[in-house]
Amino acid sequence: MIPGSFSYHRPASVADAVKLLSDLGEEARPLAGGHSLVPMMKLRLATPAHLVDLHGIAALKGISRNGNNLIIGAMTTQHELLASDEVAKAMPILHEAALLIADPQVRYRGTIGGNVANGDPGNDMPALMMTLEATYRLEGPGGTRDVAAADFYQGAYFTALEPGEILTSVSVPVPAAGHGYAYEKLKRKVGDYATAAAAVVLTMSGGKVVTCAIGLTNVHETPLLAIDAAKAVIGTSLDAATLKKAAAAASAIMAPAADARGPVEYRKHVGGIMVTRALQRAAAIAK
Amino acid sequence: MNDLTPTREQRSAALEGMGCKRKRVEDIRFTQGKGNYVDDVKLPGMLHGDFVRSPHPHARVKKIDDSEALKVPGVLAVITAETLKTVNLAWMPTLAGDVQMVLADGKVLFQNQEVAFVVATDRYAADDGINKVIVEYEPLPPLVDPFKSMDKDAPVLREDLAGKTSGAHGPRKHHNHIFEWSVGDKELTDAAFKKAEVTIKEMISYHRTHPSPLETCQCVCSFDKIKGELTIYGTFQAPHVIRTVVSLIAKLPEQKIHVIAPDIGGGFGNKVGAYPGYICAAVASIVTGKPVKWVEDRIENLTATSFARDYHMTTEIAASKDGKVTGLRVHVLADHGAFDACADPSKWPAGFFNIVTGSYDFPTAHLAVDGVYTNKAPGGVAYRCSFRVTEAAYCIERAMDILAQKLNMDPAELRLKNFIKPEQFPYHSALGWEYDSGDYHTAMRKMMETTGYAALRKEQAEKRAAFKRGETREIMGLGVSFFTEIVGAGPSKNCDILGIAMFDSCEIRMHPTGAGIARMGTKSQGQGHETTWAQIIATEIGIPADNIMVEEGNTDTAPYGLGTYGSRSTPVAGAAIAMAARKIKAKAQMIAAYKLEVHEDDLEFDIDGFRVKGLPEKFMSMKDICWAAYNSVPPGMEPGLEAVSYYDPPNMTYPFGAYLCVMDIDVDTGVYKVRRFYALDDCGTRINPMIIEGQVHGGLTEAFAIAMGQEIRYDDTGNVVTGSFMDFFMPTAVETPHWETDFTVTPSPHHPIGAKGVGESPNVGGVPAFSNAVNDAFSFLGSTHIQMPHDFWRNWRAAKDLGAVA
Question: What residue ranges do the domains of chain B occupy?
Fold first, then answer.
């Protein structure tokens, strides 16, 4: 549990960070909150020769409103996200989900950018961002580009990030007023990854679902959008048969690993239940 | 006397003696981060050691190449079994009479076994070094399942034992067999089963788990070549035993070994044994002439130092139709891992598992235990319990519930019907123990009344009906547990460790100003000894607890003791304190008689001094007596006021308790909620109720963890898959239920202050309460026994197997 030696860099601008990462190549890793990278380094499963610490870049911090979007700087911590009235009002599901991430000590240090950019299927924010139709801004030696969260994840720890690129901010469209939302996460204990979790954002009219998006955490090597499950509930009043259908459709795309959280069958089963419960709770608070 | 003269109550309260909720004096430093732990020890020129460990559970070690490692800047030496052989330390004796490799000698027998020890100038260089040691292995088939260990074609694990048909505890019947230990009357028991009206039989497993103290195992060894002296700072629960063991195996004179256990961050049995890290650090210090520190990380602690439990108990009870037990038959298959490093008193290969008759009046019983080797880490320590007592309590408490279910009787009623009656104490159990005291019926009834047991059963019946009607997906379980512990090892007639009787000791030295120091053979790891030991002295001799300093852990200054584990400190050392204090008091009485010019028989002790009987004004305080002890003792008496006591207990003590767990389980997810947990403990005389409450909270939390998910699990190929707190269930305050505590007081008749010990009762009684609650919840769906741990997915699987989930 002792890391190998490495060089430490603390650039003051995104441009400097990008330059460092491009120049140093694969031997360099950007450091945000460090909750994933540092333990991997202590186990020597990651042995970067260079760490490029992003904490010195003021431009990567903060939450601002741009038209109908909330722009969240990549180095904004989960704690800062929780402290934001804007987030709590405009997209309460983010607030709710951030509270389910580990414990206060972790949230003081853990960042939004690190959470979504690492490609760890156990992280909660990626499925949330897909559900909310967020876009990630990536800055690299080739310039700046925006990638939809839904297109970002390619495999466990594999993302659309190109060498030298840094995820600098997340842009999240504000959901419709009166939308219903819920993030249902089954975990064994505080600090654990989800056994299965489901995010739901929906709108209702006259007791029927008008729009719906469903995201799934930790039931596949990437976060998932349960598109068929979401389709199945549109136009319904979420009666028992519909819920069952939606849960089955969601379970059908799950491919979790068997681990101490349970065998595959269990994780898929409770994944379906998380979908059901999230739908019910979201519907109950939709106006 | 005037208004300012303190009343008797005020004088008594000022002592903060026994029964006082005295605040823990050690917490002043602990809560400010000012404790002094082994890793805080930094000696000039100190080096650091770290282990190369085996990735294989079973393999031949073909070659160890350290040439690249030795090129790493800062790396000074790589120690292997070959190095250790030059000082005859490649193997070490275990507490259980087996031998254990210090470093892999030709073979590795469990994953993460120590293979080589890299010594470097700092911790980072040491770790760089271990990554450069190249070890060539030839993998061998691993043996993981203890039930297959004695198969004909099972791989031979211990080649060093080839041809040895007997071990430390008698004959071996297979190359992977360690011992068979049996006790009780087999014929009589078999006969009881033959004529029994009702019998039950169940294989009850208590899975492998780990004590996982907050602070891992560690040491600093410093060898002084000029003086030939070895100083060892270590996380030791039994520092004197370590000194003797080191002296015997390293052939160093015992007076030249100084063992110091500073503050310890939890032990729970994990820090009783001797580990390769200690030996390697000592050898490295002798070789380099510099102090060497070894500190385990969490993965090493969980996967290589002593585990607990791993008992597979086939249990049978014979009974009459109306629920009177007539016989108990238990066979245990005990998985000891690769070496038998079980920490038990030497004559007890299965500890005190023969307490398995529990709180019940079994006319006859028979027990047999087979210990076997597997490719897993060695250990088998008493994780917050007396030796194998938790396993025994789980076994009988689960079995009594199974019997109650078969008889269609309430589990509490079945227990009440079979309890040993108050008038039967001292009670001789069918498996050989003499229970000192108990009033089980009172404790059980108090539990039932306080919790509203009857109403809870009624609610459960209603919920079950609602579940069957499809109105709820939640089931409710009531977990009853009534345990009897056996602690306070132990009487020299039957308890020793490597030939040293399991007494304990106290030395009290009073200073002229009415203050004093007590030095102990025990070693607190968080139990609060500095607080409670002073309280015993305060009550015994009338000096405020605040004036008594308690010192433990330095073998040069402390009297010889066998250490702290198995809830033995209060039963044994607590008695030694009282006996030493009484010696002080006896001398104080002679001094007081001389000063007050009366015969000592005319004096009576009165809270904080001696008073002349019938003449209340003629009084001499203990404080004044302390002063007098240093200037005006009676002619012929030696000055000073100190005493030492070595206490050999006449018997064990037998704490008991009645617990109830109320649990709700969502069958669709297997998620449980502990709605209520009530724990009534009878630990005899209560020294510090606040510390007792804290001990009960801690022990229940560990019991909760074990029953509901905490396991050391190996996959089929021998990989340990629970090597960190991501996978090994360590509950936080969020998951931990609310605890309700209660008590009755049945003093031990043979203990000087009547105390029995409490630290481990809640773990012993807690585990069956949780497991019985889960099993009780599912029983109406047709199950008789569901194995621990009861984590969410296993609860769901149980529901699914019983047809409650589609």
Answer: 8-35+504-647, 38-140+216-264+271-304, 307-489+652-801
Domain B307-489+652-801: CATH class, spelled out:
alpha beta
The residues of B annotated as belonging to the active site are 237, 384-385, 760
Predicted complex ipTM? 0.96
A116 half-sphere exposure, CB direction, 13 A CA radius: 36
Chain A residues within an 8 Å CB radius of B713: 260
- For A190, the closest of B128, B722, B732 (CB atoms) is B732
The whole-angstrom distance between B160's CA and the closest CA on chain A is 33
* Site from B793, B794, B796, B800 to mutate, A interface, most A CB atoms within 10 angstroms: B793
* C-alpha dist (Å) from residue B54 to B61, B125, B283, B633: 9, 20, 21, 66
Q: In terms of DSSP H, where are the helices of chain A?
A: 14-24, 37-42, 78-83, 85-90, 92-99, 104-109, 112-117, 125-131, 149-152, 227-233, 240-252, 264-285
Taking each continuous run of H as one helix and of E as one strand, the counts in chain B are 19, 35
| Cα A24 off chain centre by | 28
Q: Domain limits of chain A? A: 7-52, 61-173, 180-285
Hey, are the CB atoms on A4 and B131 less than 8 Å from each other?
A: yes
Same fold, B8-35+504-647 and B307-489+652-801: yes
For the B8-35+504-647 domain, the top CATH level (class) is alpha beta
Could you give the count of Cα atoms lying within 13 Å of B599 in the half-sphere of its Cβ? Answer: 2
| Residue A270 touches partner B, C-beta closer than 8 Å | yes
* Domain boundaries A180-285, corresponding CATH code: 3.30.390.50
Reported as a pLDDT band with limits 50, 70 and 90, residue B2 is: low
Q: Give A26's DSSP letter.
A: G
Question: Residue B594: how many CB atoms within 10 A of its CB?
Answer: 17
Residue A188: which of B50, B127, B791 has the nearest Cβ? B791
Cβ atoms of residues B574 and B536 within 8 Å: yes
Percent of chain B at pLDDT exceeding 70: 100
B727 interface with A at CB cutoff 8 Å: yes
**Residue B79: both structure tokens together:** 């120690």
CATH code given to domain A61-173: 3.30.465.10
Domain A7-52 belongs to what architecture? 2-Layer Sandwich (3.30)
CATH homologous superfamily, domain B38-140+216-264+271-304: Aldehyde oxidase/xanthine dehydrogenase, a/b hammerhead (3.90.1170.50)
Alpha carbons B613 and B603: distance in angstroms, whole number: 6
Classify B168 as helix, strand or coil.
coil
- What pLDDT digit, counting tens, does each position of B632-647 carry? 999 999 999 999 999 9
- Which residues, other chains included, contact B697 with Cβ-Cβ below 8 Å and sequence gap of 6+? B739, B741, B762
pLDDT tens figures, B723-756: 999 999 999 999 999 999 999 999 999 999 999 9
For A13, B228, B378, B556, the CA distances from B51, given in Å and listed in that order, are 42, 26, 17, 30
Question: Tokens for B91?
Answer: 């193997």
Q: Which long-range contacts (CB under 8 A, 24 or more apart) does B185-193 make?
A: B185/B364, B185/B365, B185/B366, B185/B430, B186/B366, B188/B327, B188/B364, B189/B327, B189/B328, B189/B329, B189/B364, B189/B365, B189/B366, B190/B329, B190/B366, B192/B318, B192/B326, B192/B327, B192/B363, B192/B364, B193/B316, B193/B318, B193/B327, B193/B329
Per residue in B42-91, pLDDT (tens digit) is 999 999 999 999 999 999 999 999 999 999 999 999 999 999 999 999 99
Count other Cβ atoms within 10 Å, centred on residue B467.
Answer: 18
Kindly give the pairing relationship between strand A69-73 and strand A63-66. Answer: antiparallel
Which of B50, B669, B711, B732 is the best mutation test for A, with the most CBs of A within 10 A?
A: B669
